[in-house]
């Protein structure tokens, strides 16, 4: 991937912020203990501090190289928001549906939702693909490996 | 045969919702929740016991491993299952007595949310030290701790385990101060106790016995009420001036609350019959277990005692 | 002399028709299962564990061992073809194996991986048979202080292993450690960063992190970009699997160095194959004349780590057999299998059950050979997978990722985590942060904290304990040199650039 100074400044500052939040959260929620018998907060707090330091260094370095060079562009790669959304939605749908409704609806959900992210997939193709994968998943995981989930259920509780 | 049994798992799962408790127990497969992964001590015991029961009764058990959070995720699931006797599971000291007192996150009440069915077996903890240790016996360890509190480092397989709680119980009973060095499991701990990095190590008797037999470490004491049949000459902690002291890892069959009495009776009978089989008994004893069995009422009373005792230890140690 | 007796006894046991068959069944099923994203060694062994109840103990163990390396190999296969690693060591294999596959050299990568595994495994076995006594005494010298120093070295080395800036690698290592800290604190039992979710009490599942970070983000980045993964049908013929003379020439030294690195780390309980693979990769990149080839399909980048990881798998048996200490969760599970059959696993296993023990060791060797034989026809089949149009392939990959992740802990929550790490992985990729150091940070982070705190506890709170012990002091010195070197070369690059 392309190194980009401007994106790195943002990332560095973000990391620095995350590190600081960790320090504050660990300090506020977990006992620090002593050097000899450290509490649960000591290590995360130290780690957060290191992280925000590193983030700072990254941001500073990138700022300096931005001054030196004239590359002012953002990364030329496009952020694929639609693909991210559909892929993640498919996985989440699987996670949510598997226990209450069983393997078959869950597989259909993950396959058909995520398949939409590729424009070349048409509804009929997706249906056929989902059917094939349902059979495949059932044969491999249910009958082959005997995993303990139901194929179809109605069990919302 | 095993694969077939697994293939039926799904059918049982679906049937679970709809099936009412019929006159004869059980109606179909019995789902059996093991709150640990396959191959662990609890899983192995459950499979051995269920194989024996299945052989004599023809019942079909479907083992569902639900690991997580020291066995409390599986027990939580069991506590929420239908109390029709078609879902039961295996619990033990840590997830039925210690953890509910220790962790505020544990949702279930071990006494109200489960139906006790039968105790299965129990294993004491063994306290070991390295061969060149200055401690000749456990009395010497106690002396050292009394002379200089905090001078003895003890390793355990983890915080909140029966091993850890066994020393906490000792400390609660007589104002002693030991220094705890928790490990994650036995591997690194054994290496450290052999090298004298920690003074003593507390672990379940079977887990330390192999190292004792190999001559790598010495066994100082056991935490059961009576001397253990495998090592009859090793003193119990109770015999060293700690009346009523007991810290054991017992395992038991339990079901969700509100199970029909005839189901409990049938299951209890089946467990006791299985434990009476010489083959299973011998296998369990070879692993360092004391076989228990007994009625469901005895188990209920025992569970109430244990829950109260460990809650006391947790309070006294300020661990919650 | 006993050395050869043991080998003979082992061969006799392992080559009996019955055991050979179970070895084959294990390797075969392991390979098939391992190819499914998310199904790692532990998950595969857990799933097939009940099948071994009916077997006699030696056959059961041999089959489990077969499943073990079959799955490991299957995992590498999936990582090379689709970039969906489920374990740290296959994440390393994917770094250069996946680019090779994209260049149409998947067959070569898969075949050479098999060679590297066999080579590393063989070195490990020889050490196991010849020097286990000496090596286990060495392992006893390692306490928490030394472990901490070694892990720090591993993490610093890992942060310099990608082509980008070292600082980004360091940041990723720290983020990985941070995710590793989620869950119950082993000292106090306090739940850290779990936000009241019981599902996080045992921490974040490794599979969920790995599959999200690599697999899902790879899918997101590839959708709509590639049609069929640039594989011409000729690539599936056997001829296309044949490595070039150049490939062979480049492979010998990485395999030797990898085996040495792997053998060392394998003997230390708990660290094992994953740190070995990372160290080997970092080492190869450091000694290479053109380090910029790494990450773009350098064969050294798969040969070193693959042999390291297999050598470590074998030498992990050394503490197990000499001291009765299981070196990994997988090892503990296999020893658990013995208990079912009424055999107490432990230091006396070797003397009390020599046929079982040496049969198992030799079956490793035979199993690795079987793997080689089995996979030559299978490689063609796997590579053919890449000729499936990507718009159909990726929903299938996602489905397998979901089911595979779920099956590890029967947990829908873990699948949600996959989605979370998928987004994170894509964002980090977009900002060109390397993902591999994060996974090592994740694995080693909690161990590092554990050992650091224990070392401080045993050292009565004095940080000097790390410098007073010779082994840890020298390891820390090496780590410092690496860091200084990293900073120095970064500065030189900048001054050369401006």
Automatic annotation (TrEMBL), chain A:
It comes from Roseinatronobacter alkalisoli. The keyword Transmembrane applies. The chain crosses the membrane at residues 12-30, 42-63, 83-116, 128-154. This is Tripartite tricarboxylate transporter TctB family protein. The keyword Repeat does not apply. Residues 10-149 form the DUF1468 domain. Keywords: Membrane, Transmembrane, Transmembrane helix. Pfam families: TctB (PF07331).
Automatic annotation (TrEMBL), chain B:
Keywords: Signal. SUPFAM superfamilies: Periplasmic binding protein-like II (SSF53850). It comes from the Bacteria. InterPro entries: BUG (IPR005064), Bug_dom1 (IPR042100). Residues 1-22 form the signal peptide. Belongs to the UPF0065 (bug) family. This is Tripartite tricarboxylate transporter substrate binding protein. It comes from Roseinatronobacter alkalisoli.
UniProtKB/TrEMBL annotation, chain C:
Keywords: Membrane, Transmembrane, Transmembrane helix. The lineage of its organism: Bacteria, Pseudomonadati, Pseudomonadota, Alphaproteobacteria, Rhodobacterales. It comes from Roseinatronobacter alkalisoli. The keyword Transport does not apply. InterPro entries: DUF112_TM. Pfam families: TctA. Residues 20-440 form the DUF112 domain. It comes from the Bacteria. PANTHER family: TRICARBOXYLIC TRANSPORT PROTEIN. The keyword Nucleotide-binding does not apply. This is Tripartite tricarboxylate transporter permease. The chain crosses the membrane at residues 20-49, 61-86, 106-131, 138-159, 195-216, 260-283, 321-344, 356-383, 390-409, 415-445, 466-488.
């Amino acid at each position: 991937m392309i190194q980009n100074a401007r994106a790195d400044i943002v990332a560095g500052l973000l990391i620095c912020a995350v590190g600081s939040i960790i320090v504050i959260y660990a300090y506020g929620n977990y006992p620090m203990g002593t050097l000899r018998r450290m509490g649960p907060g000591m290590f995360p707090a130290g780690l957060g501090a290191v992280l925000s330091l590193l983030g700072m260094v990254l941001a500073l370095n990138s700022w300096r190289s931005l001054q030196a060079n004239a590359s002012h562009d953002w990364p030329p790669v496009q952020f694929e928001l639609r693909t991210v959304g559909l892929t993640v939605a498919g996985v989440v749908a699987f996670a949510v549906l598997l226990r209450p409704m069983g393997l078959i609806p869950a597989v259909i959900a993950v396959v058909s939702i995520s398949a939409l992210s590729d424009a070349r997939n048409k509804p009929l193709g997706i249906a056929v693909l989902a059917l094939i994968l349902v059979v495949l998943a059932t044969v491999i995981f249910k009958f082959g490996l005997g995993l303990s989930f139901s194929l179809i259920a109605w069990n919302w509780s | 045969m095993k694969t077939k049994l697994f293939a039926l798992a799904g059918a049982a799962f679906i049937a679970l919702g709809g099936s009412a408790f019929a006159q004869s127990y059980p109606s179909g497969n019995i789902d059996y929740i093991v709150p640990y992964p396959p191959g662990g001590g609890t899983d192995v015991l459950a499979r051995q016991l269920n194989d024996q029961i299945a052989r004599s009764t023809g019942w079909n058990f479907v083992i569902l491993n639900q690991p997580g959070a020291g066995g409390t995720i599986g027990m939580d699931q069991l506590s929420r299952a239908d109390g029709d006797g078609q879902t039961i599971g295996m619990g033990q000291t840590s997830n039925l007595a210690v953890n509910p007192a220790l962790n505020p996150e544990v949702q279930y009440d071990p006494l109200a949310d489960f139906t006790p069915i039968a105790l299965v077996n129990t294993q004491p903890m063994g306290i070991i030290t390295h061969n060149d240790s200055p401690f000749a016996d456990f009395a010497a360890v106690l002396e050292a701790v009394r002379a200089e509190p905090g001078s003895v480092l003890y390793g355990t397989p983890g915080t909140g385990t029966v091993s850890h709680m066994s020393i906490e119980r000792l400390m609660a009973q007589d104002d002693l101060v030991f220094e705890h060095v928790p490990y994650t499991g036995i591997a690194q701990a054994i290496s450290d106790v052999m090298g004298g990095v920690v003074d003593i190590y507390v672990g379940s008797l079977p887990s330390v016995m192999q190292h004792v037999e190999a001559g790598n470490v010495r066994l100082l004491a056991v935490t059961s009420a009576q001397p253990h049949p495998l090592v009859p000459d090793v003193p119990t902690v109770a015999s060293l001036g700690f009346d009523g002291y007991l810290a054991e890892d017992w395992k038991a069959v339990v079901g969700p609350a509100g199970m029909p009495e005839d189901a409990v009776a049938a299951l209890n009978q089946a467990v006791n019959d299985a434990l009476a089989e010489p083959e299973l008994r011998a296998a369990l004893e070879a692993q360092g277990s004391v076989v228990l069995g007994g009625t469901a009422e005895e188990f209920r009373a025992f569970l109430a005692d244990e829950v109260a005792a460990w809650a006391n230890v947790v309070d006294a140690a300020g661990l919650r | 002399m006993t050395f050869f007796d043991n080998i003979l006894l082992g061969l006799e046991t392992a080559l009996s028709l019955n055991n050979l068959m179970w070895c084959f069944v294990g390797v075969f099923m392991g390979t098939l299962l391992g190819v499914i994203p998310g199904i790692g060694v532990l998950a595969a062994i857990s799933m097939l564990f009940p099948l071994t109840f009916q077997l006699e103990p030696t056959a059961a163990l041999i089959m489990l061992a077969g499943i073990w390396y079959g799955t490991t190999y299957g995992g590498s296969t999936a990582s090379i073809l689709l970039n969906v690693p489920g374990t740290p060591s296959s994440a390393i294999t994917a770094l250069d194996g996946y680019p090779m596959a994209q260049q149409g050299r998947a067959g070569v990568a898969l075949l050479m991986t098999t060679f590297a595994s066999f080579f590393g495994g063989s070195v490990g076995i020889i050490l196991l048979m010849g020097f286990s006594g000496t090596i286990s005494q060495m392992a006893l010298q390692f306490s928490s202080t030394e472990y901490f120093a070694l892990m720090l070295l591993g993490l610093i080395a890992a942060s310099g292993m990608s082509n980008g800036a070292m600082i980004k690698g360091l940041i990723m290592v720290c983020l990985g450690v941070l995710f590793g800290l989620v869950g119950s604190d082993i000292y106090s039992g306090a739940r850290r960063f779990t936000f009241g979710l019981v599902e996080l009490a045992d921490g974040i599942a490794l599979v969920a992190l790995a599959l999200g970070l690599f697999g899902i983000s790879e899918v997101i980045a590839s959708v709509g970009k590639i049609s069929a993964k640039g594989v011409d049908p000729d690539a599936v013929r056997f001829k296309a699997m044949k490595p070039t003379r150049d490939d062979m020439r480049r492979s010998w030294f990485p395999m030797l160095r990898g085996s040495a690195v792997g053998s060392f780390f394998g003997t230390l309980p708990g660290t094992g194959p994953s740190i070995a693979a990372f160290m080997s990769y970092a080492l190869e990149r450091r000694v290479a004349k053109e380090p910029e080839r790494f990450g773009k399909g350098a064969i050294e980048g798969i040969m070193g780590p693959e042999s390291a990881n297999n050598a470590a798998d074998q030498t992990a048996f050394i503490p197990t057999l000499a001291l009765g200490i299981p070196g990994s969760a997988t090892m503990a599970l296999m020893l658990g299998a013995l208990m079912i059959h009424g055999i107490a696993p432990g230091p006396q296993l070797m003397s009390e059950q020599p046929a079982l023990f040496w049969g198992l060791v030799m079956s490793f060797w035979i199993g690795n050979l079987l793997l080689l034989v089995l996979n030559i026809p299978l490689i063609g089949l796997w590579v053919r997978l890449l000729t499936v149009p990507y718009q159909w392939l990726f929903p299938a990959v996602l489905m397998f990722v979901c089911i595979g992740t779920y099956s590890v802990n029967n947990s829908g929550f873990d699948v949600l985590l996959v989605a979370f790490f998928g987004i994170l992985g894509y964002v980090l990729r977009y900002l060109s942060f390397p993902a591999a150091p994060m996974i090592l940070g994740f694995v080693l982070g909690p161990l590092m904290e554990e050992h650091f705190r224990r070392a401080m506890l045993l050292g009565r709170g004095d940080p000097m304990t790390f410098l007073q012990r010779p082994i840890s002091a020298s390891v820390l010195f090496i780590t410092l040199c690496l860091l200084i070197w990293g900073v120095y070369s970064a500065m030189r690059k900048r001054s050369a650039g401006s």
